[in-house]
Amino acid sequence: MVHWTAEEKHHITSLWAKVNVEACGSEALARLLIVYPWTQRFFSSFGNLSSAEAILHNPQVHAHGKKVLTSFGEAVKNLDHIKQTFATLSKLHCEKLHVDPENFKLLGNILIIVLASHFAKEFTPACQAAWQKLVGAVAHALALGYH
Amino acid sequence: MLNADEKQLIKHAWEKVLGHQEDFGAEALERMFTVYPQTKTYFPHFDLHHDSEQIRHHGKKVVTALGDAVRHMDNLSEALSELSNLHAYNLRVDPVNFKLLSHCFQVVLAVHLADEYTPQVHVAYDKFLAAVSAVLAEKYR
Questions:
Q1: Which end of chain A is more exposed for a tag (fewer CB within 10 A), N or C?
Q2: CA distance B52 to B108
Q3: Do the Cβ atoms of B46 and B61 come closer than 8 Å?
């Protein structure tokens, strides 16, 4: 179980309360596909991903990004039970989606950059540290069910 | 590696860094020390308190060197040759740490450039910083 200080929990929950999940989620997924184009391998059914512009305006990317970040929100609501919260999704990502867990780390760092660009000075080093710990914990939990 | 568009994006965004090398450098280092405490092991001789003179001085040094790299993207190996020697024979920083500092520097760019740190600028800098890191590690063995 991950141990969180009161300060870390505060950084996470107070920032999350201000996050526009749809906007940040779609932006994070779009950036993942643009910055690490090999991640497009998991989205062959998503239509036009041929350029940054196409990706940024792709409705399926938008919808899926929102879905992914909404799911991530479950971690924020269950900071003391992250492993359990993602047990089913972990199995899914291994058995059905066949996603290399390295991708969870990539998306985690992309989310950090999206938060930094939206929250600027408010995203202090201490706030970043709490969030890096969170994205690391989620990535770890998603990889736990792999076999 | 870097195409013409990406080089343009990098140079254009760098104009926002000019005049702030010390601030941005200090912030990147502070973020790295906070988020990845193991990186502090390379600075046992430094005062690592927030805004210390040593962090500001070192941050400025690092970002100024990145600025040199921006101006010589077509021959990074040559332009960074001395720094490459320094890191290989003297500092011997494990190359995994270049990724950590690169990430933190990108967070600083995102914080200060906000909307202007578009996905296109983001990927260009990700590639550029990876190229710089590779050059710094190229004489390690």
A1: C
A2: 18
A3: no
Inter-CA distances, B24 with A31, B113, B116, B130, Å:
23, 11, 16, 19
Asked if the Cβ–Cβ distance from B111 to A31 is below 8 Å, we say: no
The model scores a pTM over 0.90: yes
Chain A residue with CA closest to B108: the answer is A116
Could you read off the pLDDT tens digit of each residue along chain A, which spans 147 residues?
899 999 999 999 999 999 999 999 999 999 999 999 999 999 999 999 999 999 999 999 999 999 999 999 999 999 999 999 999 999 999 999 999 999 999 999 999 999 999 999 999 999 999 999 999 999 999 999 999
* The CA-based dihedral angle spanning residues B13, B15, B18, B22, taken in that order and rounded to the nearest 10 degrees: -10
What's the topology of domain B4-137?
Globin-like (1.10.490)
Domain A6-146 has CATH 1.10.490.10: yes
What is the ipTM for the molecules in this complex? Answer: 0.87
Could you tell me the residue ranges of all domains in chain B? 4-137
Best of B122, B125, B127, B128 to substitute, by most chain A Cβ atoms within 10 angstroms, is: B122
